[in-house]
Amino acid sequence: MLERLFKLKDHGTALRTEVVAGITTFLTMAYIVLVNPTILADAGMPAAGAAAATCLAAAFGSIMMGLFANYPIALAPGMGLNAYFTYTVVQGMGLPWQTALGCVFLSGVAFLILTVSGVRKLIVGAIPPSLYAAIAAGIGLFIAFIGLKSVGVIVAHPATTVTLGSLSSPAALLTLFGLALTGVLLAWRVRAAMLIGILTTTALAWAIGAVAWTPGDYSLEALTATAFRLDVPAALGIGGKGLTLALIEIIVVFLFVDLFDNVGTLVAVTKRAGLVQPDGSIPRLNRILLTDSAATIVGSMAGTTTTVSYIESAAGVAAGGRTGLTAVVVGLLFLVALVFAPFASAIPAAATAPALILVGALMMAPLADNDWTDPLVAIPGFLTLIAIPLTFSIANGLAFGIIACAVLKLGRGQATAADWPLLGLAALFIARFIWLSAG
């Protein structure tokens, strides 16, 4: 049955290899079960429910990827978009988290429609790949900044905007310990470095009495506290002011960051696995993207943010994973992780902050592929890279980068008929800035 489903022999792999690869991938990305609820709790969401939703979304997405697309790519709620959800949409714009989940749902539906209709290909073809790298790295800086801010290592300052906080506080000292430990483990290529760092720092925090936690009941009610709480009518503006530009912007950001993140991850992982065709195409690409959009829809209904393909899947590929069986193993392990969901709130911010900082560091890697001596690459890339963390908004970074790409192409006389999606997006973002200024 496994041979028929996954064609193990055709891919030069075996059952044991695929299982080991799945376990390897899971260990490298299991930190999301602890980190994601911490971020979503800042949006007012119940931590246990958010942890359970994280596990369910990752399990559904990974198993569907394995069975439907037959790729060794695991999925889970994406870093960066969870921060955008909490700190920009809920805290910054004042939307209830239920409405924000409705926006996530709608972005998943839009992604599904774009994939089926073929519009996705137009968008991907129109936007320079170098901008994907800048977006990924900008999000990396964004989540690293959030990690440093959450434990007081970086604090506000009236003269310089930000400055160094007290490094003698328990939270800061624990963060520095976790940062050093996890960094050393990563340097030694330990697969579960993030997870070990989080758990060890948590144990130390408990040992010195730096955690205040009241255990809740292990109940179905706690695990389902975020399930089916999304408010799609509110996200559509029904019963309020209608579908406003702000709501459209939120949905578009969820949609496009998900799109760019997946394209970058798919290219990296499939190249590493030797699954790319000689002409550079990725077989069954639509199945991969359909899986991603379905996982985002299911995840929003369970109560978590956008579900994306994880670059940590490359760890499983390095361990020999070549088929969807690897992804299925990851999904099954996330189902097992549901047992620990009620204890997510016992993990202090000082234990998850190092993971945010180091994930941010690892997200700088795509920048190496950009030609920074070319102004057509460097200017949009730099504006995207710096605008995301400094404006505390992924939307602003996307806007600056896409507008810069369009302006430079037009100014250089290189814009063609194929660039109309890029020019259209740039016009929409310019209209957004005009609207924000008028407001």
Describe this protein with a few key phrases:
globular; mainly alpha; two-stranded antiparallel ribbon; single chain
Describe, in plain words, how this protein is organized in 3D.
It is a single chain. The protein is mainly alpha-helical and 439 residues long. The protein folds into 2 domains: 2-134 and 231-347, no CATH class; 370-439, no CATH class. The protein has 20 helices and 4 strands. The protein has helices spanning 2-6, 15-29, 32-41, 47-69, 81-90, 97-117, 119-126, 129-150, 170-187, 193-207, 220-223, 232-235, 245-273, 285-302, 313-318, 324-337, 349-362, 375-390, 394-412, 420-438, and strands at 75-77, 154-157, 161-164, 307-309. The strands form 2 sheets. It has a two-stranded antiparallel sheet with strand order 1-4. Strand 2 and strand 3 (161-164) form a beta hairpin. The chain is globular and about 60 Å long.
Task: Record the SSE blueprint.
Blueprint: H1 2-6, H2 15-29, H3 32-41, H4 47-69, E1 75-77, H5 81-90, H6 97-117, H7 119-126, H8 129-150, E2 154-157, E3 161-164, H9 170-187, H10 193-207, H11 220-223, H12 232-235, H13 245-273, H14 285-302, E4 307-309, H15 313-318, H16 324-337, H17 349-362, H18 375-390, H19 394-412, H20 420-438
Antiparallel strand pairs: 1-4, 2-3
Helix pairs in contact: 2-16, 3-4, 3-5, 4-14, 4-16, 6-13, 6-14, 8-13, 8-17, 8-18, 8-19, 9-10, 9-17, 10-17, 18-19, 19-20
- Mean pLDDT over the residues: 88
Helices and strands: which structural class?
Answer: mainly alpha
Helix content: 55-70%
Pick out the low-confidence regions.
none
Q: From the alpha-carbon coordinates, what is the Rg to the nearest angstrom? A: 21 Å
Number of strands: 4
Q: How far is it from the N-terminal to the C-terminal residue, by CA? A: 60 Å
The major pleated sheet works out as: 2 strands, antiparallel
The number of helices is 20
User: What's the number of domains?
Assistant: 2
Gross morphology is globular
Strand order of the largest sheet: 1-4
**What order do the helices and strands follow?**
HHHHEHHHHEEHHHHHHEHHHHHH
Give the strand content. under 5%
